[in-house]
Each structure stands twice: as C-alpha cells, then as structure tokens.
Amino acid sequence: HWEGHSRLHEALVSGALVMSDPQTYWPHGTIENENIVVYNSRADLEFKILYYLDPENEEERMKIGQRGREVALTHHRQWQQAERLFLNDMKYRNGYGLANKPWDTNTDFVF
Length: 111
What we know:
Blueprint: H1 6-13, E1 19-20, E2 37-38, H2 42-53, H3 58-75, H4 78-87, E3 93-94, E4 97-98
Parallel strand pairs: 1-2
Antiparallel strand pairs: 3-4
C-alpha cells in the first residue's frame, strides 16, 4: 500500500484488526502489535491471519482492533491533520521526525 494513504486510517476507524506491510513512517500513535499488526512476508502474513482467526486469540484481535480505532479517532481526523499541518504541532514527533515538517527555506531546491 501507499504510505500515508487515508485507507489505513479508514481501516483503523472500522475497529477491525488491521494488518499492513512495513512502512518507513507510521502515523502518529500507531504501534506495532498494540493497534496494528505488521507482516514482513507472505508466509508471515499467512501465519498472522491464522493466528488471529483462531478463537483462542479472539480477545487479543478485538483489543488490537479497538485500540486502532481509538488511535484513528483520537489523532487522525481531518481537522487534526490540518492542525498538524498548519500549526506544526511538536507533540507529533516520532522516531522518523515530524509527521508534517515545515518548509526548509535553506535548501537549494530549484524548480
């Protein structure tokens, strides 16, 4: 999938367990195995699908899905995205930097 695409947020807000391939940048608040499940290969995806569909793991699956919904509703509504973009809110810092970096006026970018 395409990183940063709204489909990830739409899937999270559904409350279902969301599985994704790895990304360089994860949206603010997204934590692997806490509110999203990441697979690294087709075999890993198959294993995780079977694991989370097992009735013994239903409670874990439901909790991850619910936490994903909470993250989407708490941090990824349109007005929150606009707030981060226009206000450059520093609380949205993650291991890869800011979700929305300010324009760097010190670059030698040529149109």
